[in-house]
Design a protein that fits this description.
Length: about 550
């Protein structure tokens, strides 16, 4: 009988020193440079661990910028793992026989496989595995709501903290970005596909289609590709060079991008159908919803969409930029989703002394990712919860001076199962401010859909598709937010991936595709269904 090896004193494990970057642990050495620079792989342990030993390792903390410092700059908040932290965290994975984490991922990334490859130091293999499953891992590793997807179902969550799947994904993805490998492309098929919109759905579809040998052109209304990733999500959460890197990878693989092309104006859908063998529509749902209260058209009121586009896409975050942007000392952002958190944290970084979230439900109901709420709190954002605006107030020159609100209490559950906020009589009060940002949701933009009468849309303006993503016009497919209603990056990507394979079947004359040809099956990987009912209050991951 061999002696059972004693575990080495492990950082983060009971009996070992605290984890690097964790409170009480050694200073964090993470960050893009530290993680992928000269540091060499070394196994975290000198012997294979038993499941019990794995269970004893505490979750490895992701190093992040100091809260006070980062509230005044636009650099990325999370700094990423170093190789040592990644390998240590990979040791926590139990390599379950029934890896439920895969079921929790909308694109069914083979999570234990890439984690095991990190653990053994095979970064080339880990990158190939991850990129084979997920076209934009640098993005999803940063913005996916892992806590309610893969990490939410990880078996380790039952007795403590789940494996930090998102942080490990980000580590591998950033490594792969620095070590590019030419993708394997099928021989040219002679078929061409137009992709309308360059958000995560369009980019994913384009990447898959080009790998399948098709000639792909992406048409984008803005001057830069990336959709919400480039114009909505701020630099401090998703650096724009990361998104550009993903776009460059697709261009290098052969995807053509025509910017400043609005389909429905510059070209019609009909023209695209004549020029291309198939079309994939992924125009998102970017039309802002307003509160419909008096004073909403005063100077100093922005939609979150306009505010974030000015700051991100048009560079107003940069003091050298000539893009005009108002910088209120007191800014109120109405809404509780990711968009609201992005807007309020942006206002803080642009110099607001008081940056306040006004949301009509309680903290538990905030639809934003838990991490974003936590980071916002750390940065000094005020939360005025169970409060609903009734009027925006202005001075004689029509500049905003405040926002009138009512306090709310929670009544009976509504259709979403959440308790409906009900106004408390006589609770009216005013929050003084110079700027209001409205972040209560978005809906479909009729620019394209209204220009093509044959394209079936539902009463809310979203494109109706069959279960494989084909719209009412043969050869025209659609996916992402323009089918689902405002949802998430990973769901938009899942639609792009599945539609690409359905388009491929269509181009081969073998539509509908065989189930085994389609990536992502099961509940979480199901194809997009048109948003059928009004969702005044979207689910936890929605962006309101
Ligand atoms: C500020 C913000 C923060 C968010 N944060 C998160 C998050 O943390 N995690 C998460 O998972 N999700 C988040 N989301 C939601 C997520 O970004 C979207 O669900 C996702 O981007 C939808 O992808 P899409 O490809 O369908 O559309 P989009 O990303 O909206 O891309 C659509 C593209 O189509 C272009 N377009 C529109 N009309 C036309 C036309 N007629 N012709 C040509 N091009 C056109 C648009 O300019 C745009 O580039 C956030 C959304 C916002 C706005
Ligand atoms: S469920 Fe958690 S522990 Fe199990 S394989 Fe997935 S990540 Fe690893």
């Amino acid at each position: 009988m061999t002696d059972k090896p004693n575990p080495a004193p492990v950082q983060g494990a009971p009996g070992g020193p605290p984890a690097t970057g964790a409170p009480g642990g050694p200073p964090a050495t993470g960050g893009p440079d530290a993680s992928h620079g000269d540091s060499e792989f070394q196994p975290a342990f000198d012997h294979p661990l038993t499941p019990r030993e794995r269970m004893a390792i505490e979750r490895t903390h992701m190093p992040e910028q100091d809260a006070l410092a980062r509230a005044a700059n636009f650099h990325e908040v999370n700094l990423g793992y170093s190789v040592q932290l990644a390998v240590l965290e990979a040791e926590r994975c139990l390599q379950c026989k029934n890896p439920v984490c895969i079921d929790g991922c909308p694109v069914r990334v083979n999570i234990p496989r890439f984690i095991e490859l990190i653990r053994t130091g095979d970064m080339v293999g880990a990158a190939a595995s991850l990129l084979g499953d997920n076209a934009l891992p640098c993005v999803t590793g940063r913005v996916c709501p892992q806590e309610i997807q893969c990490e939410g179902v990880c078996v380790r969550a039952k007795k403590g903290s789940p494996v930090a799947i998102g942080a490990l994904e980000r580590y591998v993805a950033d490594w792969a970005m620095e070590h590019p490998v030419a993708p394997l492309l099928a021989p040219p098929t002679g078929k061409s596909v137009a992709v309308v919109g360059s958000g995560p759905s369009g980019l994913t579809a384009a990447g898959e289609l080009v790998k399948l040998g098709h000639d792909v052109t992406v048409f984008e209304a803005f001057h830069a590709a990336g959709g919400v990733l480039i114009y909505g999500i701020p630099e401090f959460r998703l650096p724009k060079d990361i998104v550009q890197g993903e776009v460059d990878r697709l261009v290098a693989a052969g995807v053509k991008i025509e910017a400043n092309a609005i389909i429905g104006r510059t070209y019609t859908l009909r023209e695209l159908r004549e020029r291309f063998d198939a079309v994939f529509i992924a125009v998102g749902a970017g039309l802002p919803v307003f509160m419909n209260v008096p004073g909403e058209n005063l100077k100093g009121v922005y939609s979150a969409n306009e505010y974030l586009t000015r700051v991100n896409l048009m560079g107003a975050w940069n003091p050298e930029s000539d893009t005009p942007i108002l910088k209120g000392h007191r800014v109120v952002v109405v809404g509780g989703g990711n968009v609201a958190m992005d807007a309020v944290r942006t206002a803080k970084r642009l110099g607001a002394e008081e940056a306040t979230i006004v949301y009509r439900r309680g903290k538990e109901e905030l639809p934003a990712r838990a991490e974003e709420v936590h980071h916002a709190e750390q940065e000094g954002i005020r939360f005025d919860l169970q409060v609903a605006p009734t009027e925006v107030l202005g001075d004689e020159n029509r500049w905003v001076t405040g926002i009138r609100c009512l306090r709310m209490e929670l009544g009976e559950p509504d259709a979403s199962g959440r308790r409906r906020p009900v106004p408390i009589e006589g609770s009216e009060f005013v929050i003084d401010c110079e700027m209001v940002v409205v972040a209560i949701g978005t809906r479909s933009n009729p620019l394209l859909t209204a220009s093509e009468p044959d394209l079936e849309i539902n009463p809310r303006g979203y494109i109706v598709t069959d279960e494989h993503g084909m719209a009412s016009i043969p050869g025209v497919f659609a996916g992402g937010d323009i089918v689902r209603g405002a949802a998430t990056v990973i769901l938009a990507m899942g639609d792009g991936k599945r539609s690409a394979h359905a388009i491929d079947a269509w181009l081969r004359g073998e539509y509908p595709p065989k189930p085994e040809e389609l990536p992502g099956t099961g509940e979480h990987g199901a194809p997009a269904k048109a948003a059928a009912e009004p969702t005044a209050e979207p689910a936890k991951v929605a962006t309101e």
